[in-house]
Write a structure and sequence with these properties.
CATH superfamily: Aldolase class I
Number of helices: 12
Radius of gyration: 18 Å
Strand content: 15-25%
Bound molecules: flavin mononucleotide
CATH class: Alpha Beta
Helix content: 25-40%
Oligomer: single chain
CATH architecture: Alpha-Beta Barrel
Order of helices and strands: HHHEEEHEEEHEHEHEHEEEHEHEHH
Shape: globular
Largest sheet: 8 strands, parallel, barrel
CATH topology: TIM Barrel
Structural class: alpha/beta
Strand order of the largest sheet: 3-4-7-8-9-10-13-14
Number of domains: 1
Length: 321
C-alpha cells in the first residue's frame, strides 16, 4: 500500500498549529476529491467481505466523525483503505460551531477539541458526496442537531448511499435546556425518527453502568441496530468544557464495549470509538465484542501510515481466523 505522498503531505500539517491544519483539511473543496483520489491512491488489501446490515465491508476499520464533516474528504477513506468513512456530524443547516473553538495537542497520543459541531449543512454535504463515489470505503452518516427536530429533518434527506446512520446524542449543544445525552432527551429524538433499519446511537464516553443500561433500553425500545461507543471524554480546560480523545481514553472504551456486549446481547452492532492507536488495540476491542472499529485521533497525531498499519494488522488477524 503506497502512503508515501499522503505521509509527505501530512508531515507539514502536523507541525502547523492544530486549528490551522484542521481548517485546511476540513475545508478542502469537495470537487477536488476525484483528482486527489487519483494522485493519492493506495493499493488496498483484498476485501475481507465483512457482513453488516445486509451489506459488505472491505474491513471493519472506519474513520470516526469529525474530519469528513462535510463529505469533502471521502477520498481519504479510500486512500487509507478504510472499510467505512463517517460523514459528519451533519446538521440540517449551516452552523459555525462554538464561539470559542479549541483544538489542542496535549500529549503525543491525544487531542482536545471544542468545535461545537460546525457544519456546512446537509445540502452542501450531499453536493460534496456527489463529487466522489468511493471505491473501497463505504459511507456512514452521523447526524446531530441543536434542536430535536433537526434529527428528524435530516433523517428524511439521507439517501441509500449511507450504510448506516449514527444518531449523535453526545453533543452538549441543545437549545432546549440541557443535553441530548440524558436518556430522557435522547428518547425525544428517537421518538421523532422514522422507523428504519439503519440507526445506531452514538453515546458519550462513559462507564457509568446505569447510564449504559438506559441507552441499551432505548436501543431495544426503538429498534435501533446498535451503539457507537462512544465519543470524546469530557474535560474542563481553559474554563471551557471540551472533549479529550486518543490513547488515554482507550481503557474506558474497552470497558464500554465489554459492558454493552453483555447488555445488548449478540444481535446488535457495537462500533467502538475511542483511543485506538494500533492494530493490537483494534483486535482487543474486536475480541471483546465490537463489530466495527473507528479511528480518528491516531490519524491526527500519528498520521496516515499509522492508520494503514492498523488496517493491515487487523486484516492479517481476521484473514487467519
Ligand atoms: C477534532 C474532532 C472533531 C470531532 N467531531 C465529532 C463530530 O462532529 N461528531 C461526532 O459524533 N464525534 C466527533 N468527534 C469524536 C470522534 O468521532 C471520536 O468518537 C472520538 O474522537 C474518539 O475516538 P479517537 O480517540 O479515535 O479520536 C470528534 C473528535 C475530534 C478529535
Amino acid at each position: 500500500m503506497g502512503t508515501g505522498l499522503l505521509e509527505y503531505l501530512w508531515k507539514p500539517l502536523s507541525m502547523l498549529p492544530p486549528k490551522v491544519s484542521y481548517t485546511i483539511v476540513h475545508s478542502s473543496p469537495g470537487r477536488l476529491q476525484k483528482p486527489l483520489s487519483r494522485i493519492l491512491a493506495s493499493k488496498c488489501p483484498e476485501s475481507l467481505k465483512i457482513r453488516i446490515l445486509n451489506n459488505t465491508l472491505t474491513n471493519p476499520i472506519g474513520l470516526a466523525a469529525g474530519l469528513n464533516k462535510n463529505g469533502n474528504l471521502t477520498w481519504l477513506g479510500d486512500a487509507l483503505c478504510l472499510g467505512f468513512t463517517v460523514v459528519g456530524s451533519i446538521l440540517p443547516y449551516r452552523y459555525k460551531g462554538a464561539e470559542t473553538k479549541l483544538l489542542l495537542r496535549p500529549t503525543p497520543l491525544s487531542a482536545v477539541n471544542r468545535l461545537g459541531l460546525p457544519s456546512d449543512g446537509i445540502e452542501k454535504v450531499l453536493q460534496n458526496i456527489n463529487h466522489y463515489r468511493p471505491r473501497y470505503t463505504r459511507l456512514v452518516a452521523n447526524i446531530a442537531g441543536l434542536r430535536r427536530n433537526d434529527y428528524k429533518e435530516l433523517s428524511g434527506q439521507l439517501g441509500e448511499e449511507f450504510l448506516f446512520v449514527e444518531v449523535n446524542i453526545s453533543c452538549p449543544n441543545t437549545e432546549e435546556h440541557g443535553t441530548f445525552e440524558k436518556p430522557e432527551y435522547a428518547e425525544k429524538i428517537l421518538i421523532g425518527l422514522p422507523a428504519s433499519q439503519r440507526y445506531l446511537l452514538k453515546i458519550p464516553h462513559t462507564t457509568n453502568r446505569d447510564l449504559l443500561v438506559n441507552y441499551v433500553d432505548l436501543v431495544k425500545k426503538y429498534g435501533l441496530q446498535g451503539i457507537v461507543a462512544g465519543n470524546t471524554s469530557k474535560i474542563w480546560i481553559r474554563g471551557f468544557q471540551a472533549g479529550l480523545s486518543g490513547r488515554p481514553i482507550f481503557h474506558g472504551t474497552k470497558k464500554m464495549v465489554v459492558a454493552l456486549r453483555e447488555l445488548l446481547g449478540e444481535d446488535k452492532i457495537i462500533v467502538a470509538s475511542g483511543g485506538v492507536f494500533s492494530a493490537d488495540d483494534a483486535i482487543e476491542l474486536l475480541e471483546n465484542g465490537a463489530n466495527l472499529i473507528e479511528v480518528l485521533t491516531v490519524l491526527l497525531r500519528r498520521g496516515p501510515r499509522a492508520v494503514l498499519d492498523i488496517v493491515e494488522g487487523v486484516h492479517r488477524y481476521l484473514a487467519k481466523r
